[in-house]
Amino acid sequence: MNSFGFEIQKDNTIEYDKNDLSLAAFVLRHEPSLYNCIQCGSCSGTCPASAISSYQFRKMQLLMRRGETKHLREDVAHCMLCGKCILVCPRGVNTRNVIRQIRIALNMN
Amino acid sequence: MKFNLFVLPFTIGLLVLFSILTAKYIRWFLSLSTDQRDAVIKNFFTLKTLSGLREIFLESLLHRNISRKNRLLGYMHMSLAFGWFLLIIVGHFESYSYFKTALEPPYIPIFLRYFQQDSLADPLQVIYWFVMDLILLFVLSGVALAWYKRHNRKHFGMKKTTRHLPADRIALSVLWFIFPLRLLAESITSAIYGGGSFLTSGLGSLLENNIASDLSFIASWWAYSISLGLFFVFLPFSRYMHIPTELVLIMLRNWGATKYTGKIDGITQFEVHSCSSCGICLDSCQLLELGHANIQSPYLFRNFRGNKLSDTVVQNCLMCGRCETTCVVGIKTNSVRRAIRQNSDVEVNHDYLRHVDTSFNSSPDVLYFAGCMTHLTPGIKKSMQAIFKAAKINYALVDEDQNICCGRPMMLSGLAEQSLAMVNKNKELFENSGAQTLVTSCPICYKVFRDEYNLNIEVLHHTQYIDRLMKEGKLALAKSEEQVVYHDPCELGRNSGVYDEPRRVIAALANLSESPANREKAWCCGGSIANAMLTSLEKKELAISALGKIVPKNTMTLVTACPLCKKTFASTGKHINIVDIAELVAVNLSAGKDKRRIWMFEKIESASI
Ligand code: SF4
Ligand code: SF4
Ligand code: SF4
Ligand code: SF4
Fold first, then answer.
1. B404 contacts in A (CB within 8 Å)?
2. Using the beta-carbon criterion (under 8 Å), do B410 and A53 form an inter-chain contact?
3. What CATH number was assigned to the domain covering residues B351-467?
4. Positive or negative, the Cα torsion across B524, B527, B528, B533?
5. B477-608 domain in CATH 1.10.760?
6. Maximum distance among all alpha carbons in chain A?
7. Do A92 and B348 touch (CB under 8 A)?
8. Which domains, from first to last, does chain A contain?
């Protein structure tokens, strides 16, 4: 069965102090427009991958910025680079380059 | 045996050059794909070889393409290339007339005036002297122009010129010295031994009393030989590698062996090394407006040659193809960049596509694939649906709820292999439908469906499809007197060659004016999916600048044929109606009733960007 995010969320504690934020720092340095994100979710709303999978750009980058990178590799692999998210983002976040930079960062180590 | 030590720098340089060239070319030939190699073998003994040689003569020697851009620039290149070629050829004939053998060492015709100092009282020799002086003057005029061009490129029709690397600069300086040194050596020889014609003997008589001596005589021949030798040694490591490589590329192209294979292969190497860094394509690159001045094709190629590619050089390009259409060598800049971008290290997992239902419960004649971008410009989609309905077409919209991207954005980003799951799923969808025609509103989808999907179904962009419906008389349309201008989207025009259908459709509905930069010269809207690096503000800046250049003063409506162009232009907030051809057709279907409604809808929607 495909998960559309309607199941009961598992408990999750984010330990900000302990989490490694270096990946987020790399991505933000190379695509600072991500700082402008207001977590509105328009990107996930229009995303064709989100329509048929549990992947969400908004959620992925939020978790990444909190240092929760355990599922980042499998999440970012969903993106089709179609560019719809860029066109709907009200804050001018260069989402495709965020994805590209995440991929670069993941391949660096 | 005619010999002097001074011929050594030239001879050694020539040997080094030939060994390096042979080694490189053999390596590149071996990395051709089987198809490419078969094409060479199949077409070698055909007329294609002759037409290749003809093209070499016209382009590599006469530089016809450059002359078309600018006469003076063309003359400069021609005088250097064709002049040098003539010096060698006529030199060989002259040498044959003295020594009656074609098998002399290669340095003899080059340093002929040294090896044949005596005047023979032969009218033929006088003619040869005259002709050779004339050719030398021809070449020298090119050298003078080349030197002048470094400081006054505007007279040569160029705003920008490439910045050169150290190796290029050395080779360039050496090249500037070769022919003046030849003139000096021949003039001193003429001053001492007589002979020569108007140029060499003229200059010789000026030098006779002060410069000409035994020492300056041999020193000038040494200098000439050293400059030649140095140039040959530097050639394979500088941009002058383009001189021999372009010849091979022209032949390969004529043999039909240059098809893009999706990766860096021998053809990529030949293309990359055929770039002379002439910089003629630079002025066409809109990224210069944003100050991105080191990513253009010549820089990409040069960094590739020197193994110094950076992420920015590779990725910061719109793939608009404007440089490709201006390249005087005909290098497929877009294909080369795409090959260089290929990256198989990036992991992609599109397994979730298995949830997409590809079965059909109707049997449509025509499939309509709106495309990701069209879903964000619903006016285009609705217009197309209205057109299908008006023409009574049995169609199906294939990407209504679950749209899969066509894959081209990934391909252009260097992830062609990784896009296969998407390609296959879409193919399955199209093939299951049983339809004969696939219509799409997005030129990006159109290009990839047509050129890379290998479908058994006819693929049409909606401009082509509407044109056909109109020809078949299936649409009742009224022409308005509205003044409109058409913008050729990069992917539809330059990259797919569709220029006439959109114009026919528009001309039947409104008064079409052409912008000065239309067809293959059209500007990119700036929204290109191939560039992930530009910020949203930079894209907007490009769009504003392009709009300013495209739309004439008396025109309030810009018609385009790409949802992404529409969206990008609309984001500028300019008071211009930006409409898609499909919308123009749809409003004229309803003959004015709701004419503004669809456009206003889009304006409100796009104002949120
Ligand atoms: S580019 Fe990726 S994240 Fe953005 S909408 Fe397309 S599939 Fe979703
Ligand atoms: S649409 Fe833009 S602002 Fe909204 S969540 Fe996505 S990235 Fe953030
Ligand atoms: S394809 Fe376009 S953006 Fe890229 S280098 Fe050529 S002209 Fe510039
Ligand atoms: S790509 Fe073509 S036009 Fe541009 S510098 Fe190279 S040879 Fe000249």
1. 48, 80
2. no
3. 3.40.50
4. positive
5. no
6. 38
7. no
8. 20-105 (1.10.1060.10)
